[in-house]
Design goal:
Layout lengths: L20 H15 L3 H14 L4 H13 L3 H14 L3 H17 L3 H14 L4 H39 L9 H31 L6
Helix pairs in contact: 1-2, 2-3, 3-4, 3-5, 4-5, 5-6, 6-7
């Protein structure tokens, strides 16, 4: 896929307003570390803020960003989803929905990412990044479906060959019953021959000598 497919929304677009001071401090600390590229250190700060106030969408949004940078796309998807459900502004909701779509795309969940991009586009029809990613995801899904259709006939042929291999070969030998009958017949004939030979021997020994 194109390297431009997943255009990531930058961090720090949302100010923390009217939150507890410790929460503000954790988010500010996390933002500073994130901008420095220290995602490992930024993560626990955002987690601390999200624990202190689970209803704060900014904490979950920023946490999702850090998790995304660490390529933990499943976790980032969940936090973006939480940010969407708790967002109090249309802007934050749109950006969280878009980022959720990006996380889904990274997990190859194309249909789900398409649904997320569509929702984000409805929230902001002028967002070029969302429109671009939606078009790319739709194109990728179409390509996958075409590949599956092309592979289907080949799979059917392979299944038929496999079934033919598994089918038992027709027996070349005589039926068991017929073999038994044949052997019995041979035995009877042999007994008949032996009996006749015995009779001939008996006649030869009892026959009187010829009178010349």
């Amino acid at each position: 896929m194109s390297k431009h497919l997943f255009i990531f929304i930058g961090l720090g677009a949302f100010a923390v307003v009217a939150q507890a001071q410790t929460e503000n401090k954790a988010i500010r600390s996390g933002n500073k570390l994130y901008k420095e590229g220290k995602y490992d250190k930024a993560l626990p700060e955002y987690e601390k803020a999200a624990t202190q106030n689970p209803a704060n969408p900014v904490s979950h949004y920023n946490l999702g960003n850090a998790q995304f940078r660490k390529e933990d796309f499943t976790a980032s998807e969940k936090n973006f989803d939480t940010a969407v459900s708790t967002a109090t502004t249309n802007e934050l909701k749109q950006k969280s929905t878009y980022n959720k779509g990006v996380s889904l795309s990274k997990q190859k969940k194309l249909q789900e990412s398409i649904d997320a991009y569509k929702k984000a586009l409805r929230l902001n029809p002028n967002d070029k990044d969302t429109r671009y990613n939606l078009e790319k995801a739709l194109s990728e899904l179409k390509k996958q479906n075409e590949q599956k259709e092309q592979q289907q006939p080949k799979q059917n042929q392979q299944q038929k060959k496999q079934q033919q291999k598994q089918q038992p070969k027709p027996k070349q030998t005589l039926d068991k019953k017929k073999i038994e009958q044949f052997l019995k017949s041979l035995e009877q004939k042999e007994q008949e021959v032996q009996r006749k030979m015995q009779q001939n021997r008996t006649r030869a020994t009892t026959q009187p000598e010829k009178d010349w």
